[in-house]
Amino acid sequence: MNWESVIGLEVHLQLATRSKIFSGSATTFGAEPNTQASAVDLAMPGMLPVLNAEAVHYAVKFGLGIGAEIGKRSIFDRKNYFYPDSPKGYQISQFEAPIVGEGRFEISLPDGSTRSIGITRAHLEEDAGKSLHEDYHGQSGIDLNRAGTPLLEIVSEPDIRNATEAVAYLKALHSLVTYLEISDGNMAEGSMRCDINISLRAQGSTTLGTRAEIKNVNSFRFVEKAIQHEIERQADILEDGGTIVQETRLYDAERDETRPMRSKEVANDYRYFPEPDLLPVVIDDAYIADIQRTLPELPTTKRHRFAEVYGLSNYDANVLADTRPLADYFEVVVGACNDAKIAANWVQVELLGQLNREQTSLAQCPVPAADLGGLIARILDGSISGKIAKQVFEAMWQGEGSADAIIEARGLKQVSDSGALEGIITEVIAGHPEQVQQFLEADEGRRKKLTGFFVGQVMKASKGQANPQMVNELLAKKLV
Amino acid sequence: MTITQDDIEKIAELARIRISGEEIGEVTQRITEILQMVDTLQAADTSNIEPMANPLDATQQLRADEVTELNRRDDFLAIAPAVEDGLFLVPRVIE
Amino acid sequence: MHKHTVSQLSRGLREGKYSSVEVTRHYLQRIARLDERYNAFISVDEQAALAAAEAADARLASGDGAPLTGIPLAHKDIFCTQGLKTSCGSRMLDNFVPPYDATVIERFRSAGSVILGKTNMDEFAMGSSNESSYYGATHNPWNTGCVPGGSSGGSAAAVAALLAPAATGTDTGGSIRQPAAFCGITGLKPTYGRVSRLGMIAFASSLDQGGPMARSAEDCALLLNTMAGHDPRDSTSSDVPVEDYTAGLEKSLEGLRIGLPDAYFGEGLDSATGECIRLALKELEALGATLTAVSLPHSALTIPTYYIVAPAEASTNLSRYDGVRYGHRCADPADLHDLYTRTREEGFGDEVKRRILIGTYALSAGYYDAYYKKAQQARRLIRQDFLDCFQSVDIIAGPTTPGPAFALGAKDNDPVSMYLEDVYTLAVNLAGLPGMSLPAGFVQDKPVGLQLIGPHFGEGRLLNIAHRLQQATDWHTRTPADGENAA
Predict the structure, then answer these.
(1) Where does CATH 3.90.1300.10 sit in chain C?
(2) For residue C286, how far is the Cα from the chain centroid?
(3) C330/chain B closest Cα distance in angstroms
(4) In chain B, which residues have their Cβ closer than 8 Å to the Cβ of A32?
(5) Burial A197-234, CB ≥16 within 10 A → b, else e
(6) Which B residues 24-83 touch C at CB under 8 Å?
(7) Which of A118, C134, C376, C466 has minimal CB crowding within 10 Å?
(8) Interface test with C, best of B23, B49, B52 (most C CBs within 10 A)
């Protein structure tokens, strides 16, 4: 049978606040265990939560970014369960009245097409601590530094149909939240973690099958693999006439498989109820309008603008609009050279290639965007050839200065002086009598090819600095 | 609403409180009495009444996003039952 | 010296009649000699108390003293005190020495007052008799065979027995007012949010409120001046400006309208107690007040509502006691589940366990709407009754309790009858109102308490009324015989 998979994602996004959601502890990643765990984070007796204004601000920003209804009166609830990384014995989350309601946003797929994915809701909650399973005499160690880090849990509609779409969704989400500057989006540090709800149904069916939840998958690649494996696993069971058990599973990256989580076997009754230590969060229209005003241009809008205004392909527009720094960089380059297509090409091939080779990021890039634009301008005005430009770019990367300075210092300016070129051409012709003879005897088609040989020789003799167009013109005259 | 010994065991498990075999009967009895008293509330008409979470109907005040807590790990670990390498120790956690 | 009120001691200290060290030492000696009879204190740190007294003396000498500088106070063992054990009356926290102060304690420390010790209480403030304390019951100084009330029974007994000039308490359903009534002292539960709950160990978050317990309304006003105020670290703390509660004490009661709810004078009220209350009300009439009958149509909902809301909140507030980061931990846990269940079995007493179980039940799947949500709706009706009353009267008055202190052990194994003891006090917490209890005579040589209930943030008016009544009467000046001081 043909199965259709129905996938919904719950993304836990760490918000980039300085302090925790309910306490004044730092949220810096990688600190010594329990050095960023205050009395509030440790749930010491009598301690109380106070809500971080920035967490609210970021959540609203996200809501506006996906065109969602903002919860004007959102409520925090206690989600009760015992676990050593949850010091209060409950997690403060939002259940019935989340801060962000329904929204939707567009994802672009590798084939250049786009899809719109619904967002059910997004709510604020606190992160848990970490259990370290290294052996402490048969015991586990608990580090509560992460406990209380603000999370925005973003719940998608079950609109996703396969692993590729899931990854595209996560990439689009990553792009959005980094545009909004509400999260550092650092997957390796767990800033974006994903729970996957997945079920299968017969192609064409409209009812939902029993789903499994795969917890805590934290890279794009693992999401892809976990989904692929889970689809296979469920399809195998269904093909054999079995039924899917609703359960929570864990993706084991090392063994590349999903398996049931043992700790969650007992059906939990979370006993949600409004957190009495916090009051309803009331957001007024002026607050929302203020944030709306400061919202940057978002990836989807930017993508469309790049395609329309600059005439870029969907693919190029996607790559260049992926992150705000790259998009900004690209636009400065365009501004300095006035040719979007060449700029797009240079940014994607030379700049990103070089960043990739050097394993560095745009933030560390030694070539300012305006300078790259300046370099491209020199190609466009014929001062240098594309080939020489690559040399100049290398030198710029080494910090030798602007394109003009390097061209000047190294004498790389294209030779466009017809007197000088004529001299070189005369020498080349004199040095290759055999080829000249062949040329004179050849037909029109073969002449073209032989011209190429002479151009190459001239370029070689001029160390690449001869203006190719002029060389062609002069050769055409001299060879007849 | 009647509550059985079985119900009490389930609740006790949710609340992570061990109740010994000899106590469970007594505990069930007492809780039954209390729930009978509490159940008189069921007769009240509360339709269309907004639940009251806070007696002043106050709303949440927000805290500026500033780091105000210093590292006091030593003070906290000093009063913990089992610690090592700056961590709280618990019997093995299985995921 | 121990017969002095706080305001008298405050004057004496500032006039240099005695030093804080002398006053503090005097009380410490009384505690050492007499507390065996009452078991009012769980912890006393003499050295720290004397060191604080010395510092207070220096401050007084430099002319920088505040009204409470040098005054020794007892604190309910529910307020976290840095460096001094804070047990909340529980085995669970028998070894807990907080590395921080509650906001209330911080405020008293910066006012220069001295911590005499921490007072006994019902475990996690759950009780009306102080019998659920892990440290044994406290005895009522008026009759040591009787309970002092609870849960702030240790504070009430300490003040009544003159082991401390004043104390702090907390009130979730009557825990300041009921023991104040039983012990013949004056106690005030402020408006919800008036006193910070930070560092005050939570029982039921939306009901808990700290307040003063003393021998006069004037002393309560002095203490409340220090305790009250907005705390940015408690989200439920109110930012309504705080008045000077001593400033309005002398205001005339002419024209004061007092509402008497029929529900507080009906069946269940001990007739002799009722007589005392009527007498006290006559005194208020003589001072210019008028008495009107009012009705609280939803008062029958009070007890069931309270016994859902309070246990529900408590059941999750007490989840943090898991043997991982502080407090009791069972020996040799076999696994995580064993660590939790045995730690909590051993660490909590019967009443606390009962309330956790009831609360867990009330919040569990399928019951939330019928219990917790319904109770929160009923709460709004109960509050509205009071708000309606305050349209036509300034305050509401009635008995604090149905009768005087009952015998120790009288309500063992009968939690429901214990719960009914709080029938007149619970609604005040559900509605978040200020309420106070003040001495209003005696029944069988045991004190009776008059309860005054005001509108939100009306504690100043309550203190004013109580103060004027205390100027006209002498019930609050009576003290129990303690073998050393004939009454």
Answers:
(1) 6-258+397-477
(2) 29
(3) 10
(4) 73, 86
(5) bbbbbeeeeeeebebbbbbbbbbbebbbbbbbbbbebb
(6) 27, 30-31, 33-35, 37-42, 44, 46, 49-56, 58, 60-61, 63, 72, 75-76, 78-82
(7) A118
(8) B52
Residue corresponding to tokens 């029982």: C203
Per-residue pLDDT, averaged over A114-129, amounts to 96
Task: Give me the pLDDT at residue A383, please.
Answer: 84
Contact C319 A89 (CB under 8 A): yes
Three-state SS letters, B26-55: HHHHHHHHHHHHHHHHHHCCCCCCCCCCCC
Catalytic residues of C: 76, 151, 175
Closest residue in C to B37 (Cα) is C304
Closest CA to A158 of A5, A56, A53, A269: A5
> What pairs with residue A8 in β-bridges?
A197
Q: Where are the domains of chain A?
A: 3-290, 297-410, 418-478
Written as six digits, the tokens of A10 are 């719950």
- Residues with Cβ < 8 Å from C146, sequence gap 6 or more? C139, C140, C182, C404, C405, C406, C407, C408, C446
Q: What fold characterizes domain C6-258+397-477? A: Amidase signature (AS) enzymes (3.90.1300)
Read out DSSP for C390-424? TTT-SEEEEESSSSSPPBTTTTTT-HHHHHHTTTT
Cis omega (within 30 of 0) for bond into A385: no
ipTM over cut 0.95: yes
Are A330 and A337 contacting, i.e. CB atoms less than 8 angstroms apart?
no
**Tokens found for residue A231:** 């689809």
pLDDT tens per residue, range C175-204: 999 999 999 999 999 999 999 999 999 999
Residues pairing with A14 in the sheet:
A151
Question: Rounded to an integer, what distance in angstroms lies between the CA atom of residue A177 and that of residue A168?
Answer: 14
**CA–CA min distance B49, chain C (Å):** 6
Give bridge partners of residue C246 from the DSSP assignment.
Answer: none
Residue numbers in B near C335 (CB within 8 A) = 91-92
Class of the domain covering A418-478: mainly alpha
- pTM: predicted TM-score of the whole model, two decimal places: 0.92
Asked if A280 and B60 count as a contact pair (C-beta separation under 8 A), the reply is yes
Q: What is the CA radius of gyration of chain B?
A: 22
Distance CA A108, CA A114 (A): 4
- Beta strand segments in A396-452, E: none
Indicate if the pLDDT at residue A381 is higher than 90.
no
Name every residue whose Cβ is closer than 8 Å to that of residue C340 and which is 6 or more positions away in sequence.
Answer: A82, B16, C322, C323
> pLDDT tens string for chain C (487 positions)?
889 999 999 999 999 999 999 999 999 999 999 999 999 999 999 999 999 999 999 999 999 999 999 999 999 999 999 999 999 999 999 999 999 999 999 999 999 999 999 999 999 999 999 999 999 999 999 999 999 999 999 999 999 999 999 999 999 999 999 999 999 999 999 999 999 999 999 999 999 999 999 999 999 999 999 999 999 999 999 999 999 999 999 999 999 999 999 999 998 999 999 999 999 999 999 999 999 999 999 999 999 999 999 999 999 999 999 999 999 999 999 999 999 999 999 999 999 999 999 999 999 988 999 999 999 999 999 999 999 999 999 999 999 999 999 999 999 888 888 888 899 999 999 999 999 999 999 999 999 999 999 999 999 999 999 999 999 999 999 999 876 654 3
Give the count of alpha carbons within 13 A of A336, CB side only: 22
